[in-house]
Design brief:
Layout (H helix, E strand, L loop, with lengths): L10 E7 L3 H13 L3 E4 L8 H4 L20 H6 L9 H14 L6 E2 L4 E7 L4 E6 L4 E9 L21 E4 L7 H4 L3 E5 L3 H13 L2 E6 L5 E3 L7 H9 L1 H9 L19 H14 L16 H18 L3 H6 L12 E3 L2 H4 L5 E5 L5 E4 L3 E4 L3 E3 L2 E4 L7 H5 L3 E3 L3 E2 H4 L18 E3 L12 H21 L5 E3 L1 H16 L29 H13 L5 E3 L2 E2 L19 H13 L2
Parallel strand pairs: 1-2, 1-6, 2-3, 4-17, 6-19, 7-16, 8-9, 8-16, 9-12, 10-11
Antiparallel strand pairs: 4-5, 5-6, 13-14, 14-15, 17-18, 20-21, 21-22
Helix pairs in contact: 1-15, 15-17
């Protein structure tokens, strides 16, 4: 395997963008297959989103023991997580440990951004242009750039007028000490806002939270992992990992079959209380099988949660403003520590941007339709241009199809979330219309890289140079993802899941929500059948895949509709 010092003229087997969880595992697998590899990372080090997102309180919302690689038993045994939900710094240490342990750092060129990628049909190669002006060529182009790595454009009116300090959670560059004694405004209450707001409140003279949409914020119930728990898990890691691979969400399953109205009001309340104490993605939102499919059933869980807000927050007007008004689970639930309690502090206030939108800013104030708020520092927790933003930033271009953003002008269209028609030898790791959106993404990453490398190995064994999704196969997969999501309450709500947070972005649901296990079985069945829906050098075993999702072998419940319900409900959690 060659490293990043390979002469510029050399053609490598795999070009890869990104050195986070996806890129590192892609490099590992390329070396295992004996392929040459050249990776490019815009940051100065490995880590991806965990290198860039260093805001106070940043941590994963999937339990650490599952949010980690499973490809090496030795790695699993030697690394010990300290907490149920690891903080950003610990996850970054883990990623660095993996890079060093498997000597993967040398596979990447850091501080290097890919600014364009062009398919050369005559040569059957990809040519990437780096920000230095240097070009590199390879047979396959792998986008391992992450789904949440491109911050959305700032759309706060009048921000250019503000003379104080502005910082973004996605590119954090200050310390909490820099905010001490200051009047701070946090704009946005998604995951990053939820995690940083309690810590900023502890040091700020005054904290004003500007909220557009109230979210469901469950208590993280984070804690240190007892040594006996760690030992027990390590002793059973192989069986735990298998369960995760075939589970709905990529974490150990907690199957439920009864529905919200199958039990009495008292029993339902008791179970919600227990689930609230348990928390995590197998919490309240996964307590009954129909919560993501029946609006009346969902309302029982949502009302329970809204009651919890009023129990915690003393000022009832503030509690009402903090109530989410969409189905529980239809957007990704947040997990925080002391979030609602923070609004009981005398130095914290809440402004609803639904009631009083921001109209402009002055040098030292945020001006809304109802008033003016003096601030020294503005924290932008406004989120990401999810999934498509990182891909479009590569300016991927193929003759006859233009740029990827042109091909997807009317919405995302992929084959399994891994390939897209018209762009040969181009692969996306955990891309749009894969399970990445509603899963333990590390598990999804491993499965994606494994499937992609198996497909490349299959093509090379057949003497084929060009791998491409057929339009028919792609149409079938888009139909499957749309049918699946339309069975759920996801379809009822605008969110970043649909790109609704980015002005002008076509509305396409960005994930497959039939479950990690079901998706894996679909991919395995496609491989077993000789890759229908994929053309090798223009030849396809079968141009489409039909409704292969209803044909794969699944555990009870056996009907397709019932399993979609069970899988998606458990994957959402909350």
């Amino acid at each position: 395997m060659t490293d990043s010092t390979t002469p510029p003229a050399a053609v490598v087997d795999v070009l890869c963008v990104g050195a986070g969880f996806s890129g590192l595992y892609a490099a590992y697998q390329a070396r295992e297959h004996g392929w040459t590899f050249a990776g490019f990372e815009a940051a100065p080090e490995v880590g991806g989103t965990w290198f860039l997102n260093t805001y106070p309180g940043a941590r994963c919302d999937v339990e650490s023991i599952y949010y980690s690689y499973s490809f090496s038993e030795e790695l699993q045994k030697e690394w010990t997580w300290s907490e149920r939900f690891a903080p950003q710094a610990e996850i970054l240490r883990y990623i660095n440990h993996v890079a060093d342990r498997f000597d993967l750092r040398r596979c990447f060129q850091f501080n290097t951004k890919v600014v364009a990628a062009n398919w050369l049909p005559e040569e059957k190669l990809w040519e990437v242009t780096l920000d230095s002006g240097v070009t590199r060529r390879g047979h396959y182009l792998l986008a391992a750039s992450g789904g949440l790595s491109t911050p959305k454009d700032v759309d706060v009116p009048g921000l250019e007028n503000f003379a104080g300090r502005t910082v973004s959670t996605s590119r954090w560059n200050v310390s909490l000490d820099d905010l001490a004694g200051k009047r701070v405004a946090v704009i946005g209450t998604g995951s990053s806002g939820v995690q940083c707001i309690p810590l900023i409140a502890e040091v700020a003279e005054q904290l004003t939270v500007f909220q557009r949409t109230a979210n469901y914020v469950f208590p993280a119930r984070n804690r240190a992992l007892p040594p006996e728990t760690v030992d027990e898990i390590k002793s059973r890691y192989p069986e735990i990992r298998r369960e995760c691979r075939y589970s709905p969400g990529g974490i150990p399953d907690r199957p439920v079959t009864d529905r919200a109205f199958d039990v009495s009001d008292e029993e339902r309340r008791r179970r919600y209380e227990a689930a609230y104490e348990r928390s995590g993605f197998l919490g309240v939102g996964a307590e009954f099988a129909d919560l993501l499919f029946d609006l009346d059933a969902n309302k029982t869980a949502a009302d329970f949660f809204r009651g919890k807000i009023h129990e915690i927050v003393h000022d009832q007007r503030t509690a009402t403003l903090l109530e989410p008004h969409f189905p529980l689970g239809a957007k990704r639930s947040c997990f925080g520590t002391g979030y609602y309690e923070t609004f009981n502090r005398p130095n914290v206030s809440l402004v609803s941007l639904r009631e009083e939108p921001i109209t402009t800013m002055t040098a030292d104030s945020i001006v809304t339709e109802a008033g003016s708020y003096e601030v020294d520092v503005i924290v932008l927790a406004i989120g990401f241009d999810a999934f498509t933003g990182p891909l479009f930033g590569l300016n991927v271009t193929a003759p006859g199809h233009g740029k990827l953003q042109d091909a997807w002008r009317d919405g995302v269209r992929t084959y399994l979330g891994l390939l897209t028609a018209g762009f040969p030898n181009f692969f996306m790791v955990a891309g749009p219309q894969s399970p990445a959106l509603a899963s333990n993404v590390v598990m999804t990453i491993e499965q994606a890289v494994d499937w992609i490398t198996d497909l490349i190995a299959h093509a090379r064994a057949e003497g084929r140079e060009v791998i491409e999704a057929t339009p028919e196969g792609q149409d079938d997969w888009v139909g499957i993802t749309e049918w699946t999501v339309n069975q759920t309450l996801y379809a009822s709500t605008d969110s970043w899941y649909r790109g609704s947070n980015v002005a002008g972005k076509p509305s396409t649901f960005m994930g497959y929500v039939g479950g990690v296990g079901r998706y894996r079985r679909i991919c395995e069945e496609i491989s077993r059948r000789g890759y229908p829906g994929v053309a090798l050098d223009g030849d396809a075993v079968a141009k489409g895949i039909g409704r292969i999702d209803t044909e794969v072998e699944v555990p009870a419940p056996t009907t397709a509709q019932e399993e979609v319900h069970a899988d998606a409900a458990t994957a959402v959690g909350g």
